[in-house]
Write a structure and sequence with these properties.
This protein is mainly beta. It is built from no helices and four strands. The structure holds zinc ion.
Length: 64
């Protein structure tokens, strides 16, 4: 439902186990004061394909 992070999100990553790009499941690992740590897992085999730190969006009055 959230669309603000679309550019930062990976929908598919290369999975070394499946040997092809697979859709990934994004899992929230950790919430930091300034960012969130997300983990990406292969939806097929569950392999962890990487994590990413997502900076918290600036809370501005930019929302319509
Ligand atoms: Zn996989």
């Amino acid at each position: 439902m959230q669309r603000q992070f679309e550019e930062l999100r990976a929908s598919e990553l290369y999975c070394p186990r499946c040997r092809t790009a697979q859709p990934v499941r994004e899992k929230l690992l950790l919430v930091l004061p300034h960012a969130e740590l997300h983990d990406y897992q292969c939806t097929i085999c569950g392999e962890s394909l990487g994590s990413r730190e997502v900076k918290a969006p600036p809370v501005m009055a930019a929302r319509r």
